[in-house]
Design goal:
Number of helices: 2
Strand order of the largest sheet: 1-2
Shape: elongated
Distance between the termini: 94 Å
Largest sheet: 2 strands, parallel
Length: 97
């Protein structure tokens, strides 16, 4: 290839590279939009929390030994002093739970 063709090819490549790096054209500025107003939502009642009188924690026990009524009352008084309502279910087998 002659020196003349090398200069023409190099000039053409420089022109293509410079034109590719230039801005693509005028850009329009986006219009500012107004913030939409929030729509009031319907009231949703909250569920009764677990451990309250209306929704006691249900605890099922399958004791290895026979429980006395004194042990059951101690267990219930322990939870009563903590402020948590517990419904104690004592059963003999897992099928009863």
């Amino acid at each position: 290839m002659s020196k003349r063709w090398q200069i023409i090819l190099a000039t053409l490549l420089v022109i293509l590279a410079v034109s590719a790096c230039g801005p693509s054209g005028p850009r329009s500025t986006p219009r500012p939009t107004q913030t939409p107003f929030s729509t009031p939502l319907p009231w949703i009642s909250t569920p009764v929390p677990a451990g309250s009188a209306g929704n006691p924690v249900r605890m099922a026990l399958i004791p290895a030994e026979e429980l006395s009524s004194e042990q059951v009352s101690e267990f219930e008084s322990l939870f009563a002093s903590s402020g948590v309502a517990v419904q104690l279910i004592i059963s003999e087998t897992e099928a009863e739970v």
